[in-house]
Structures are given as C-alpha cells and as structure tokens.
Inverse folding.
C-alpha cells in the first residue's frame, strides 16, 4: 500500500535534499528544527525517524543521513533543489563563501542531481559565446576540482573566476576561449590555478527584456 507523506514530511525531505546539494551534508537536528519552525529538537527528530521508517532516508555508521529515494513524483510540486548564485567573479577560494551568495535559486533535480554540490555563476564578457555562453547568462556548475579534456570549467586564474574550455597535457593545462572575438587568447598554466567545477548547463539571460 502506498504511503502518503504529510506536508511537514515533504518539507523536511526538501530541506535534507537541499542541505546535501548545497553544503554536502544533511542538516543537523537543530538546523532542521529551525527550518521547520519547531521549538524543540525532538520534534524534528521524530520527523526524521518517520522518513527512515518509510524508506526515504538511512542513517550511516557516522550518524549522517543519506537519501534513499527522493520526493514522490505526485507530491504536487516540481522536484527542485536550491542552488546558490555566487555572483560574477570572486577571489580564489572565496568564490563559494557564504557571504558571496546573492540568492538561492530552485533548479530541477534532473539538472542538479542529488549527491553532488552545485552553484550558479553569472557569465561576464564574450570569451565563450561560440559555446553558447554569453554575457549575463547563468551557468550551472557541478562543484569539483577535476575535469576532462574539452569540459567547460570554472577555474580561478589571477584571483578571478574564469569560464573556459579545459585542455590538459603532460606538462601544461590550456584554458581555451570559444569566442567570435579574436582578442581572447589561450591561457597556458602549470599548476598555479584551481578548477572550481564543471559547467553542466547554461541559463540564457533575458536579452529581449
């Protein structure tokens, strides 16, 4: 027999899924208590126990929660996860710092898949226009520090976030523009840069507005 989730159980499941996608971990009991508007941690713990019994969550050996299955398709709402928009460019490792988050934007879990972390970044300039990334577009980025040949990556170069095509070799890495503007040149690096993530998809800006 199919078990329907209550509204508060659905809210809790969304908070847990968002925490895993946004911070790489499920919220603590107290964080979930606050998000659900409860006064006591026990109330949030009861919800978690119900979701475990119903097969939506499992608790690992360390006590951390893991999703076994997502919100039901017929839950009456689109299946999304909140992804942080971290601006246009920031310095080095501060790119994903909480103080740089401009907003959190709902993104379909078909794009921002559970068990990975994602962020959104606003593209600036025309260095990737031939790859379909134009000034003002948003790019959805899966956070990781490795990439394959031809991947479009977000990398930290000279203290700024650069969106370029990734081409490694045995000695160097080339970050290549895909631009109709001839002023943009390859960036040739050794190990003095950091890959922040790989671009998953592009959200075009509303240029006609």
């Amino acid at each position: 027999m199919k078990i329907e989730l209550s509204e508060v159980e659905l809210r809790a499941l969304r908070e847990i899924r968002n925490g895993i996608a946004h911070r790489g971990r499920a919220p603590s009991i107290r964080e979930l208590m606050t998000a659900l508007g409860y006064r006591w941690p026990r109330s949030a713990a009861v919800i978690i126990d119900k979701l475990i019994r119903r097969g939506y969550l499992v608790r690992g050996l360390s006590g951390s929660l893991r999703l076994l299955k997502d919100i039901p398709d017929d839950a009456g709402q689109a299946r999304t996860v909140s992804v942080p928009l971290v601006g246009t460019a920031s310095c080095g490792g501060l790119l994903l710092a909480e103080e740089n988050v401009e907003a959190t934007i709902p993104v379909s879990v078909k794009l921002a898949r559970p068990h990975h972390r994602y962020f959104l970044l606003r593209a600036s300039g025309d260095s990737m226009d031939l790859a379909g990334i134009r000034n003002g577009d948003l790019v959805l980025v899966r956070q990781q520090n490795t990439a394959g040949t031809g991947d479009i990556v977000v990398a930290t170069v000279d203290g700024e976030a650069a969106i370029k095509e990734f081409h490694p070799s045995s000695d160097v890495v080339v970050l290549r523009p895909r631009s109709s503007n001839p002023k943009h040149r390859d960036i040739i690096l050794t190990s003095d840069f950091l890959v922040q993530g790989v671009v998953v998809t592009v959200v075009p800006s509303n240029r006609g507005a």
Remarks:
- The radius of gyration is 20 Å.
- The chain has a mean pLDDT of 82.
